[in-house]
Amino acid sequence: MNYQWNWSIFLQPTVVGDTTYLGWMFAGLQMTLMLSLSAWVIALLLGAVVGVLRTVPNKLLSGLATAYVELFRNIPLLVQLFIWYFVMPELVPQSLGDAYKQSHPVLQQFLAAMVCLALFTSARVAEQVRSGINSLPRGQKNAGLALGFTLPQVYRHVLLPMAFRLIMPPLTSEFLNIFKNSAVCSTIGLLELAAQGRQLVDYTAQPYESFIAVTVAYVAINVVVMTLMKKLEDKVRVPGYMGGK
Amino acid sequence: MIQISHVSKNYGSFDVLKDCSTTVSKGEVIVVCGPSGSGKSTLIKCVNGLEPFQSGEIIVNGTSVGDPKTNLSKLRAHVGMVFQNFELFPHMSITQNLAIAQVKVLGRQQDEAIDKGLKLLDRVGLKAHAHKFPGQLSGGQQQRVAIARALAMDPICMLFDEPTSALDPEMVNEVLDVMTELAQEGMTMMCVTHEMGFARRVANRVIFMDHGRIVEDDEKEAFFANPRSERAQQFLAKILHH
Fold first, then answer.
1. Inside any domain, residue A8
2. Nearest to B188, CA basis, from B16, B47, B7, B41
3. Which among A123, A147, B51, B223 could bridge B45 via Cys, Cβ 3.0 to 4.6 Å?
């Protein structure tokens, strides 16, 4: 193989002259972090609500929640992204669609990507919340009710605190997934980490360095996430329960 | 205090309760026994509305449990219940377990609730464990905490659903002692249990159930001396031999 390695490429100014190529990578990293973290916050909140609704006695509410989960879980992420970005602006009331189309192009891409990732991930979070709640002993709910708690209070004080502790490991996987899935958003032109990597290849003809840098950046994000989640898991561990001390 | 009249419940075509009627007066201790699957746990759960029932009526302290207009949470706040598997909240310390419902349901101040909880914890002999978590206590200790937690709500009556069935044999007595003490202090109690020693000691009446029916509902002396139904005779013969 006759390949000229050139790691110093990252320190060179870009052809556009705005910054160095490393600067582009950091801009991509920043975009990936902003996108994924904002989508994660929404996914967590929405997923918790939908997951809870799947377990309530009310047939209509649990049915709606199930429909929500099946809808967002069974359509490929890429297709969902195209629907949010290309189709939705045409389907919503015209004034709203126009406002969207007249906003800054990067904002358009960011919003579509964020909503798409958030809803897709919320369906998966909802499933985990549901399984967490269902894996608790049935008597816990009765014990809460018997003390005079209302059903929402039972969820708030009895079921959810334990359910979230139980689903911490799969929730960590989901958190990691959202960073990796965000790479799909490069397909609508959003300049996140993966897109910056590809742009770097186009401009520098140094594909190995570019993609190694992108890989390292994704791994670094996920190592940080895993470490933080492990810390959180240890912090909320219940004494005398599930390997707690 | 508790009036159960003609209560029936079924799951599809399976009858869990058939036309059950009985009453529990203030200060009375009633023991409900019977073979497994006879509906005794279901009956006691109907009393505070944890299990719905299709027909009949249950009145607790003047409030109809089956009435859709009844605020069940409000009723349950004053009907203590103790479960087979304790059901303490594992993520809260013992102190928090005792205080949370007082604060969230009865609207008491946190300090007041903790004081009350600790007093009751002392009463069941577990004051030293206040800072621990349920998972760090033995089954018997957890059940005593569960009783204290129910008492902290100042209940007008207590329901016990097989409180000693999940316990190691050596821990049964510590729980029964607490229940006996409670009965002697005049608490109105309805206990589903197989502990016939407890029934002999403190029960006023014994209800025997089989296949969803109340087969016997007798004064304690009459029940043990001479059960009328054959089924109750067999049941007693089996469990009293050991």
1. no
2. B47
3. B51
The number of folded domains in chain A is 1
Residues of chain A with Cβ-Cβ distance to B72 below 8 Å are 145
Q: Which residues pair with B27 in a beta bridge?
A: none
pLDDT for position A243? 53
Tell me whether residue A124 is in a domain: yes
pLDDT category of residue A18 using cuts at 50, 70 and 90 = confident
- Taken in order B135, B141, B147, B152, the sign of the CA dihedral is negative
Task: Encode burial over A41-76: b for 16+ CB neighbours within 10 A, e otherwise.
Answer: ebbbebbbbbbbbbbeeeeeebeebeebbeebeeee
Residue from the list A144, A150, A240 with its beta carbon closest to the beta carbon of B134: A240
Asked whether the CA dihedral B76, B80, B84, B86 is positive or negative, the reply is: positive
pLDDT in tens, B92-116: 999 999 999 999 999 999 999 999 9
CATH of residue A210 = 1.10.3720.10
B165 in contact with A at a CB cutoff of 8 Å?
no
ipTM of this predicted complex? Answer: 0.93
Nearest-angstrom CA–CA distance, A115 and A107: 12
User: What is the three-state SS of A83-129?
Assistant: HHHHHHHHHCCHHHHHHHHHCCHHHHHHHHHHHHHHHHHHHHHHHHH
Q: Is A243 part of a structural domain of the chain?
A: no
Q: Which residue of A has its CA nearest to B149?
A: A147
Structural domain of residue A125, as residue ranges?
A: 14-234
